[in-house]
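FAQ

Q: What does a record look like?
A: Structure on top, sequence underneath. For example:
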């Protein structure tokens, strides 16, 4: 558990020697490092929110499937939280457990802008490792905030920041996220296959080997004991594709998405169509599903007037829950007996309705069961509900999907937003209703586990 009091941790002489060593190191580095002209820092707004907005910009440029993006968010926000925890341990009161470690770093007194510097320099260095091709963008965002170059010397790099960055980087090294094993489809009716068709061309999903991150369910979790810890029963209960396709439940699922998710649907309402596009954010150039939920987190946090320390913990909890939700979801998609084909395949190849088109026009390149959007939304909602000790908080959410007819939607609870996010995948024509339901159940279980096992507040 954390400590709210700082012991002497050694005699005065030992502390003096340690500080002397740090200052000597700093002096040497300062002498070797050219110093640039500095502008006044612009510490406008919360630093945790600032760097999460920088992350969203990096995600828009990087693109790709949601698993690696959720991992990046967890890596940055957990490191920020540990850095902020170290700052609180040193100069204020640490009221919740760190994620990995908080250090009582060297220093006699709090320096100018120290909280900003601890958070910002940690975030920048993590992002630079995660997105090495975006150095110019990240450097510009650093200078925009601090008025200096990120390469300019700062004593906090020596005393605390480098430790936070190294801790996090080492923790995620060899976590399985680099596994590039190519997927081989089961090649049976009901089994996932590429979703590119002559009238619905998709070069990114024209071959089975293009399935996105088939081994992601084996990635080392951030809080869970394994990716399969909360695996829902539904995929395994049929045991085979033949049993699944012969079941009345499957026929009902296909019928529902065939009607509600068709591009020319006569049963989907105008509001459902708007919601389908509002929650999509599948295309590269958007902030993707994890980014949208981080953006909503920022909006709610601003409305509630959270401090940087409160924000650091909230964003870390949300990000870790979404990262584990992605791992758990990909376990369901690829590590269970049923790698379920998408509705476009079920309807065109299973039912022979070759003219059917989903509202989306294209389909994510991985199995349907269960819905990643649903798991992300439920993991997010579960953390928000437990963090704020209430589900019934009204907020306005935004989207950056270019096809969305509306920019904002208002919700009266976190659960309401998560439920609509899940249902939107059926309305978009890319998921079955049970994908949404199982994803919600899975994401909620992940959130509760994360909240009760990591970064716990005092007295919890």
């Amino acid at each position: 558990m954390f400590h709210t009091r700082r012991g002497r941790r050694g005699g005065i002489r030992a502390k003096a020697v340690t500080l002397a060593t740090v200052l000597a190191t700093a002096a040497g580095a300062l002498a070797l490092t050219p110093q640039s002209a500095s502008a006044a820092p612009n510490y406008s707004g919360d630093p945790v929110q600032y760097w999460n907005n920088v992350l969203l910009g990096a995600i828009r440029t990087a693109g790709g499937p949601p698993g690696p993006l959720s991992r990046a968010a967890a890596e940055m926000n957990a490191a920020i939280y540990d850095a902020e925890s170290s700052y609180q341990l040193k100069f204020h009161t640490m009221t919740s457990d760190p994620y990995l470690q908080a250090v009582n770093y060297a220093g006699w007194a709090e320096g100018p802008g120290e909280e900003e510097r601890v958070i910002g320099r940690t975030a920048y260095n993590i992002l630079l490792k995660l997105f090495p091709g975006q150095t110019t963008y990240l450097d510009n965002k650093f200078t925009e905030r601090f008025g200096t170059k990120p390469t300019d010397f700062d004593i906090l790099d020596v005393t605390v920041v480098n430790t936070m960055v190294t801790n996090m980087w080492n923790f995620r090294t060899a976590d399985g996220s680099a596994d590039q094993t190519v997927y081989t489809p089961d090649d049976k009716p009901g089994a996932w296959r590429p979703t590119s068709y002559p009238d619905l061309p998709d070069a990114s999903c024209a071959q089975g080997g293009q399935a996105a991150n088939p081994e992601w369910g084996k990635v080392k979790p951030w809080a869970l004991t394994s990716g399969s810890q909360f695996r829902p029963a539904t995929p395994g209960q049929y045991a085979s594709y033949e049993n699944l396709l012969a079941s009345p439940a499957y026929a009902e699922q296909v019928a529902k998405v065939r009607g509600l998710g068709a591009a020319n649907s006569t049963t989907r309402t105008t509001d459902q169509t708007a919601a389908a596009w509002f929650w999509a954010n599948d295309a590269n150039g958007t902030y993707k599903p994890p980014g949208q939920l981080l953006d909503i987190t920022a909006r709610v946090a601003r409305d509630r007037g959270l401090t940087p320390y409160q924000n650091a913990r909230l964003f870390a909890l949300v990000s870790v829950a979404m990262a584990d939700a992605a791992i758990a979801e990909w376990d369901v998609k690829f590590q269970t007996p049923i790698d379920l084909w998408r509705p476009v395949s079920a309807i065109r190849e299973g039912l022979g309705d070759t003219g059917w088109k989903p509202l989306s026009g294209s389909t994510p390149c991985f199995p349907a069961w269960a819905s990643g959007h649903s798991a992300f939304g439920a993991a997010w909602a579960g953390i928000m509900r437990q963090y704020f000790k209430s589900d019934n908080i009204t907020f306005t959410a935004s989207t950056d999907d270019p096809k969305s007819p509306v920019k904002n939607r208002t919700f009266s609870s976190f659960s309401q937003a998560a439920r609509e996010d899940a249902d939107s995948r059926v309305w978009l024509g890319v998921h079955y209703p049970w994908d949404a339901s199982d994803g919600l159940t899975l994401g909620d279980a992940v959130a509760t586990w994360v909240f009760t096992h990591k970064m716990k507040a005092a007295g919890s």
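Q: Is there anything notable about this one?
A: Residues 1-35 have pLDDT under 50 and may be disordered.
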